[in-house]
Design goal:
Layout: H1 3-26, H2 35-38, H3 48-57, H4 67-71, E1 78-80, E2 83-85, H5 97-101, H6 112-115, E3 132-138, H7 141-146, H8 152-163, E4 168-175, E5 178-187, H9 190-195, H10 209-215, E6 221-225, H11 227-238, H12 244-252, E7 253-259, H13 268-277, E8 284-289, E9 293-297, E10 302-305, E11 331-334, E12 342-346, H14 349-360, E13 364-368, H15 373-387, H16 398-404
Parallel strand pairs: 4-6, 6-7, 7-11
Antiparallel strand pairs: 1-2, 3-12, 3-13, 4-5, 8-9, 9-10, 11-12
The structure holds flavin-adenine dinucleotide and iron/sulfur cluster (2 copies).
Amino acid sequence: MSNQEISNDEKLVQAVQKKYNEMLEEGVDPYEWAYAWRSEINRGGFKAVDFLMREIVDTGKCVGCAACVTICPTDVFDYKDENPVDTRNDACVFCELCADVCPVLRPLDKDLQTLLDFKKPVKDEGFGPYNYAVIARAKDKEFLEAGQDGGVTSALLVHALEKGSINGVVTGDVLPENPQVGIQKLATTAEEIKNCSGSRYTYSPNTMALVEAMRQDVKPLAVVGVPCQIDGVRQQQFSSIRLEVAKWYQKNVALTIGLFCSESFTHEHISYIAKELDVEPQDIVNVNVKGKVIVELRDGREIIMKLKEFHPFARPACLYCLDYSAEHADIGVGGIGLSGWTFVAIRTEAGHKFWQEAVDADLFEILPEESEPKAKELLIRLSNIKRNKPLPALMPTYQERVELGNTNPKTFYKNYNKPTDGGDEGK
Ligand SMILES: Cc1cc2nc3c(=O)[nH]c(=O)nc-3n(C[C@H](O)[C@H](O)[C@H](O)COP(=O)(O)OP(=O)(O)OC[C@H]3O[C@@H](n4cnc5c(N)ncnc54)[C@H](O)[C@@H]3O)c2cc1C
Ligand code: SF4
Ligand code: SF4
């Protein structure tokens, strides 16, 4: 590539950046922001990777969903420390997909609501569109004991796999030497799904396993992820810039299960627990948050720690996330203050089909959502805390937050969300 071409590429990137930033400043309807880059497609595209890196990654606004990484048709990105790295920048083919799928650059397209096939009648009481919700737990003790809450997620997935409704699950496993560090996993056996049960509160890059699934053509596929990951998957499935890779995800991701999430924790929370309890990280078998932090140790002890102690470990990038309840998943699940039960919100026709298959197989004990009114109240309250923030593109960068002296996502917008205590009592 000649210097002349490089400078032309750079000019186009700067032109798109300028147009995008003018739109933000002028208060243009956020649903129009994507035209800052989509209008370039007709002219042969621009180097979207440079635009994405500058606007989202360099500013510390990247939530780590990996959508840009897994959509890229020429493998431009690596993924390191919860962020994309444009290691093979020169391989960019100017398709703009990485910018188009980023859930932080802009709000998800309005027509997504139609494309997702929400089950009718659709209700939205403040935690996203859904048709019905229940409180459930697995009847099989193996799932109930290994699961973070009611073991519903893993039990449903194993059943779907054994019935042949799916052939693989993109989910999260753990590092053997540090079971609180999540890693991506393409699970294709019941055993593998079971081994992935439970929650890790560090950021687990589950969706990185999408590429492996596509390469091995494992389909139909289920995806388990926190809301930012579900949004990233939806952006990839329904991007208005259509390429084969987007079509593969649209056709073959049959089910998404979204985990409710107020924020994840930085890795430092593990060393903190280890130090406070005088144990090694590998001895921390499970961490659960229920208005307090319950730490389960390998020697069988269960230690209660104060939730407040963990506020400094809230992951700074989670400020840029507005979705608590996985509003675009087929099924949303969370513990929401319940002990040993999972709150399950059925949102789409696909979610209903998978749920009903599992219910027909008598997998769960089920209570009506009305039996735990406090859970729904909490769900609505915590969802509102995140919904009521400004759009991430309009928020200060991470560097600006450092200068302002507050990088904590729990307290930064406390005046937006009065009253708030940060809202993490029911993970
Ligand atoms: C970071 C994080 C924050 C959460 N915050 C809340 C909250 O604020 N409120 C709330 O009600 N619920 C929260 N949850 C969800 C809750 O912890 C349970 O995952 C959910 O209730 C399902 O329980 P289960 O027993 O049905 O799932 P299980 O049968 O135990 O299955 C859990 C699934 O989650 C996957 N998983 C584990 N860790 C991660 C991770 N870090 N990222 C992505 N996938 C993962 C596992 O691989 C498994 O497939 C959070 C979960 C995570 C991972
Ligand atoms: S938020 Fe997701 S799509 Fe956007 S830059 Fe980060 S990893 Fe890529
Ligand atoms: S709050 Fe949860 S869903 Fe949102 S960016 Fe953080 S980890 Fe992702």
